[in-house]
């Protein structure tokens, strides 16, 4: 059987509806349109396999299409046609589209006493910045083969794209500061289950071209990720379903980096707490040819908490996310289709910075990095080039000191 290319059905589902803005789509037609766009024959789209604990035969392709329908519904892009089963259409706000910032134009979208939300493009929006940056924390557009609505570079272009974006800010990045990039591990070679090595190329380029040092590859484990890669996991069965993304942490001067794990200690396990209360170890032994030794009294000293592991188990949804999504729906604004979770931003900001430090997000999306910085008492600057995302992000900062929203930035014809 000739194998299909890696399938990322989300943009195909969205494109099917955007290409039919004035009429609804029944699921049967949607399956046909998405299958054709993905290069799948009808029998491949509807091929069934045992799924779930009960092993009921289901089509992985149509199942994922319906999954993405629900995501688009949650983002305010799709809605069910009243009194119709399995028939969906674009919402009115989705029909109006989104407005992208003009090149070389930067406007203040909103601000608080601690931060600025800029409507513009990185790094141009930060030209002339005289502040020292203590942390650049951002999730750039992933190099998907089929771009999302906000656009993205190809894998072959990604290294140059990131270096061009980061290099103008190096003069502002404090020697004690950090750069963290949340990227995707799930970029595949064309028509192949083999992953791209774009991440390795980027790491080497950031070291060779920009003089940055790799401090760690943190694993962000998100068990609520959508199933995928669809073709290689569910159809050809060569891959496993994905559950994590890497966060690459760099520093311009590793010995001076102000990261401090005391700021992010986690509670001791029950076993460790009992061990401390009992006065520590009673055994004397060694492991690994003497590399690790246990002596009586080891681990007896009370401490404020345990040092976290570099695998961060964090879901993408939380109370702040749900409240924000409701606010966007009430305002008729679209949610971002690739949300960055508050808990991940909060952990990294508290670990790598101190109160009053400056945190910058170059591809801010819904600006959850800014919200986490605000709650942690850090100053922040977020840059986003989609107007609706800037205005929607303001809802995250309701009630914070000094909130001001630019009344001139209201949705209008494209700039």
From TrEMBL:
Give the Enzyme Commission number: 2.1.1.-
Query: InterPro entries given for it?
Result: DNA_methylase_N4/N6, MeTrfase_CN4_CS, RM_Methyltransferase, SAM-dependent_MTases_sf
The family database entries (Pfam families) matched by this protein are listed as: N6_N4_Mtase (PF01555)
Catalytic activity as recorded in UniProt = a 2'-deoxycytidine in DNA + S-adenosyl-L-methionine = an N(4)-methyl-2'-deoxycytidine in DNA + S-adenosyl-L-homocysteine + H(+)
Q: Which PROSITE patterns match?
A: N4_MTASE
The alphabetized UniProt keywords are: DNA-binding, Methyltransferase, Restriction system, S-adenosyl-L-methionine, Transferase
Q: Which domain of life is it from?
A: Bacteria
What positions does the domain DNA methylase N-4/N-6 occupy?
133-390
Alphabetical list of Gene3D superfamilies matching this protein: Vaccinia Virus protein VP39
Its family remark reads:
Belongs to the N(4)/N(6)-methyltransferase family. N(4) subfamily.
Q: What is the recorded name of this protein?
A: Methyltransferase
Q: What does the organism's lineage look like at the top? A: Bacteria, Pseudomonadati, Pseudomonadota, Gammaproteobacteria, Pseudomonadales
